TrEMBL record:
One term of GO molecular function: metal ion binding
Limits of the Rv2993c-like N-terminal domain: 1-49
Record-given protein name: 2-keto-4-pentenoate hydratase/2-oxohepta-3-ene-1,7-dioic acid hydratase in catechol pathway
Top-level division of the source organism's lineage: Bacteria
Domain spans labelled Fumarylacetoacetase-like C-terminal: 54-248
Amino acid sequence: MRIIRYDDAGTARWGVIDAGGTVRAAAGDPYTELVPGDPVGGDVRLLAPVTPSKILCVGRNYADHAAEFGNPVPKEPLIFLKPPSSIVGPGEAVVYPSLSGRLDPEAELVVVIGRAGRRVKAEDAMSVVFGYTIGNDVTARDIQKSDPQWTRGKGFDTFCPLGPWVDTQFDPSDVRVTCTVNGELRQDGRTRDFIFGIPELIAYVSAFSTLEPGDVIMTGTPPGVRPVQPGDTMTVTVEGLGELSNPVLAEDA
């Protein structure tokens, strides 16, 4: 099932996209029971499909990405947080902050948690997974490099596009993850090349932080990272899952 959030005259509502591609309103809570209803008429503006309490991100989870910036491959998952205020949905603008001189998109497969979990064992990790979506870990690279912590460089408003939906039946084991900018291919990798797999990441994260329904784990980005400029359009695609596009807008525009 593909689960969405959409705008209904200024109110965010849950919905589903059925096998025929029809958008249907839905009642209930996706993490307990979501009941599809009538088709939604007219154009549907999709919102980010989750409202997490926390966004847990994994740095350098592809060896080639670590190498392209001259960084060592981590011996254990390198975890950082993005604030929920950084989330935007499909088609929404990513704002290029005036404080930064280099803005990079980072294409990522995103795990969505479906039930609470604390100290989850790797062998049990998939039992807390609700589904998968697509993310863009937008980064002010110069600020990330200048600060001892990554919070500022990763955490600006609009720096976490998510969407377009959550797919509850998706198999993430070996899929292509790409980023194009204005149609030009830049990043290109496959999830089989993760240094740390999804069960290992869930076990590692839940050892120090309770996972809640709707929380997301961004699994890392493949090689090919290059900067964007205002006016560019970034498109992250995960094979079999869909694509997420966002324009870049100058802060003073």
